[in-house]
Specification:
The protein is of the alpha+beta class and about 425 residues long. It is built from seven helices and 20 strands. The protein is rod-shaped, with a radius of gyration of 50 Å.
């Protein structure tokens, strides 16, 4: 039977199973024993601790018995009891003792042939050489190992959750990521006359100087009626310019007043940005109309007394630049406002335009920082939001039209004025929203 005992630092548990030991031709019954050693009732006599004695362990097997030659080391001396430890017990004898314990525990001592087979078989190393049950020390070590591995697994799971939550937060709340388009560094050259396109004198990707012929037309409006209509159109354009100038002045005064109210914390930043956007829109509309009217006046003076302009006008490049787009084919009809050639200007700093959902636009404001990555250059640039809304770049768009759109147009200006990018190129844009 197994013995219940306190948690002493033993190598293996003791058992109270019949076992005898023969020492100096005297046979003793073991009080208790284990695979590590045994205790018997014996006088101390001249024995000393650490002394090694030869002995023989006898295992009773019913009508038979099995003897094992062993060496014993005296570890404990009492008045009438001596504790021995097996000295360099062989692997075979260790297996026999362990199997003997198992047979008693399982109640199968009649299967003695198993012990005989072990005793007569070859000796080899085996992991089955420890105690039948785990010691407290080994149990604690095993529990600690399980706890350690469990803590590691729990830590890894927690780390994964934190990383996943951080990535989710970063991509949905902390930053806005989208694709942008390069704008603002090209001019559109229009036909300027209603007529027929006779030919294009340039090619794509060609760099042209100011004054270089771009395309030729046949003017279909050379008549007195057309000239009168042209002069009437100029007067209308001038009246529109005056109206836009008045509105821009009014919007500018409103922006200055709003800025003072914001500094006094009487209005919110959102209110200030709305007023600023209104002023920017009206100012842009005025400048565009002024540029258009200046061009019309210059053209009108150039053609002088000619009615409706020249019969075969030649449209030239207004400035140096690279041809990035050509529209129209030879023989096709064109109107005065049709864009025939787009020139990319290297003297203008490009801008980036992006379109975001209206719900994301609520997180953005003018001056917010952004990062722009150009894949074909493998470079990144810093920028900031310069305008919000399509009306800032398209003056023909009214407030009601702006509100009906599904997305909001955002324009970004580079911090570095030396940046040059191809017109209409695609880039990646990240905007910090917190």
């Amino acid at each position: 039977m197994l013995i219940t005992e306190p948690n002493f630092q033993r190598k293996s548990h003791r058992v109270d199973i019949p076992l005898f030991v023969e020492i100096n031709s005297q046979l003793f019954r073991a009080i208790d024993w284990s695979i590590g050693g045994l205790a018997i009732q014996q006088d101390k006599n001249e024995n000393v601790v650490g002394q090694i004695v030869a002995g023989r362990v006898v295992l009773p097997l019913g009508d038979a018995r099995l003897s094992l030659d062993v060496e014993l080391v005296i570890r404990r001396l009492a008045t009438s009891e001596i504790g021995y430890e097996f000295h360099e017990l062989s692997e075979k004898n260790r297996r026999i003792l362990r199997h003997y314990i198992q047979l008693h525990v399982d109640g199968k001592l009649e299967n003695a042939e198993d012990l005989v087979a072990i005793s007569t078989g070859p000796e080899f190393s085996t992991p089955l050489n420890e105690a039948l049950t785990l010691s407290e020390e080994n149990t604690d070590a095993l529990v600690k190992g399980f706890k350690h591995r469990g803590m590691i697994a729990l830590g890894l799971i927690l780390l994964f959750v934190i990383v996943f939550a951080s990535v989710l937060f970063y991509n949905t709340q902390y930053r806005l990521e989208t694709t942008g388009v390069v704008i603002g560094n090209a001019d559109r050259v229009t036909a300027n006359y209603d007529g027929i396109l006779l030919g294009v004198d340039t090619k794509l990707e060609t760099y042209v100087r100011a004054g270089t012929p771009l395309f030729r037309l046949k003017n279909m409006a050379v008549s007195g009626t057309a000239a009168s209509s042209s002069r009437s159109s100029i007067e209308i354009q001038r009246a529109l310019l005056k109206s836009l100038e008045t509105e821009a002045t009014f919007r500018h005064q409103g922006y200055r007043n709003a800025l003072m109210l914001y500094q006094q914390r009487l209005i919110t930043r959102k209110d200030l940005e709305n007023v600023q956007n209104s002023y920017t829109t009206s100012r842009t509309a005025y400048l565009r109309q002024k540029t258009l009217l200046d061009g019309v006046d210059t053209q009108s003076k150039a053609i002088g007394h000619q009615q409706g302009g020249p019969l075969y006008p030649i449209i030239r490049a207004p400035h140096d630049g690279q041809v990035v787009a050509i529209s129209g084919t030879t023989g096709s009809h064109v109107s005065a406002n049709d864009v025939i050639v787009i020139l990319q200007r290297n003297d203008k700093v490009p801008q980036i335009a992006i379109s975001v959902e209206n719900k994301h636009a609520l997180k953005l404001h003018i001056g917010m920082k952004a990062k722009i990555y150009v894949p074909f250059q493998e470079k990144s640039y810093l920028a900031e939001i310069s305008s919000i809304g399509r009306a800032a770049i398209n003056t023909a768009l009214t407030e009601s039209m702006e509100a009906s759109l599904n997305g909001t147009l955002i324009t970004l200006a580079f911090d570095d004025p030396s940046v040059r990018l191809p017109f209409n190129a695609r880039v990646r844009v990240w905007i910090k929203t917190l």
